[in-house]
Amino acid sequence: MSTLSRPKHIGRNISRIRELRDMKQEALAQALGTSQQTVSAIENSETIDDTRLAEVAKALGVTVEAIKNYCDDMVLNIINNTFTNTSHDSSTINSINVQPNFNPLDKIVELYGEKEKLYERLIQAEKDKVEYLEKIAKGK
Asked: Which intervals of the chain form a coiled coil (predicted)?
């Protein structure tokens, strides 16, 4: 029996999407306001009424069409086409071209200036503290 002529098992598609979303049956049940056993029954059902399917799709954060048209082969194909193993493939590293839109030396100078300002404020605060303590000491 070919894949095209075989009817889609909607419950199995829901289960796969839920697993891909790293969601447990209990979490889906809570989102639907039902029990975990109800979610299990839904996932074991070959067909689901449209109202319930819309609720499940909303809880999973996907469209009804995504559940109806879900296919493991397509997901694996997308993963294979977008994943690169950087330990064996240097093309990913070579494709990353980092060019900052600022001069790093200017940033260093700017940070140094900020450091000087903070240091001057610290010295001024210490001078103010000493002056205040001297006033208190003279007042006694």
From this structure: 108-135
State the pLDDT confidence band at 80, using cuts at 50, 70 and 90.
Answer: low
How many domains does the chain contain in total? 2
Q: What separation in angstroms does the CA of 68 have from each of 9, 11, 22, 91, 136?
A: 8, 10, 19, 36, 81
With respect to residue 95, please indicate whether it lies within any of the assigned structural domains. Answer: no
pTM over 0.85? The answer is no
Confidence tier at 85 by pLDDT (50, 70, 90): low
Q: Which residues constitute the domain of residue 31?
A: 10-82
Within this chain, do residues 78 and 106 fall inside the same structural domain, yes or no?
no
* Higher-scoring residue by pLDDT: 16, 3: 16
